[in-house]
Amino acid sequence: MEDVLVIGGGAGGLNAALILSRARRRVVVVDSGRPRNAPAEAVHGFISRDGTPPAVLLAAGRKEVERYGGRIVAGEVLAVRRDDDGFEVELGDRTVRARRVIVATGLRDELPDVPGLRERWARDVLHCPHCHGWEVRDQPLGVLGWQPGAVLQAMLVRQWSDDVVFFAEVLDDAGRAKLTARGVRIVDGKVSGLVVEDDALRAVRLADGTVVERSALFVPARFVPNDALLTGLGCERDANGWVRVDPSGLTSVPGVWAAGNVMDRGAQVVAAAAAGVRAALAVNLDLIEEELLEQVR
């Protein structure tokens, strides 16, 4: 039996595995190999790692975990079940048993149904201004206003450029007033597609045929947590529909922790890594307490 099984090999999962491996725990990381930030050119906002390609960062993390005896297994977790001694984790071709589980399966970005958005995602169709704003600074930028939260996005994007257009598919009077005060130009109408030339975004096309030249478009995605394993275990949700956790990431199910974007939609890479550390420290202490109880029986 493993001490800890970590589901998800992103920054949160790998950092949790690193801490636990260094604590001489038997740790296995199961990784599907589909990181959310794979299309991005680089990770930003992570001190000492700013500008590192995501694949390079994860490869380094895997090596560090393995250096301390942790194991990385490529695969998909199909189900997690509690048993008398811990958890039984079903993979495609085997079953792994573990005393504790950390779920770091992240989230997925739901985008509006506009042709070309997904293909340009994390290139010149972007989500996070703090992650990508510097790279497109002082360029003609757009924000797709397809949901109420887009107004805040546009006010943020304005910090990196004086030329920002808000494509207003959804916009109330209060939002219009804020954008106007912030110096954001408002273009009303539904976006129907992108104009791409030489593998670069050149403009945004509206349904009425209007074309507005832009070199990058920010799209506030809807965040959907990959939390089927957690809900399958019976983990409680909060009022917003996300799995409820304590400050260490402990869910309502004893022995099950969550780390990173699966429980924190706003966590950038450095924050997901930190969440992995918090979960690992709590898991190690929880195992020590269990071991003490067994020793004094």
TrEMBL record:
FAD/NAD(P)-binding domain boundaries: 3-276
GO MF, one example: thioredoxin-disulfide reductase (NADPH) activity
Keyword set includes Flavoprotein: yes
SUPFAM superfamilies in the record: FAD/NAD(P)-binding domain
The entry's keywords: Flavoprotein, Oxidoreductase
Ribosomal protein listed as a keyword: no
InterPro entries linked to this entry: FAD/NAD-bd_sf, FAD/NAD-binding_dom, Ferredoxin-NADP_redctase_2
Catalysed conversion reaction: [thioredoxin]-dithiol + NADP(+) = [thioredoxin]-disulfide + NADPH + H(+)
Pfam annotation, one family: Pyr_redox_2
Protein name: Thioredoxin reductase
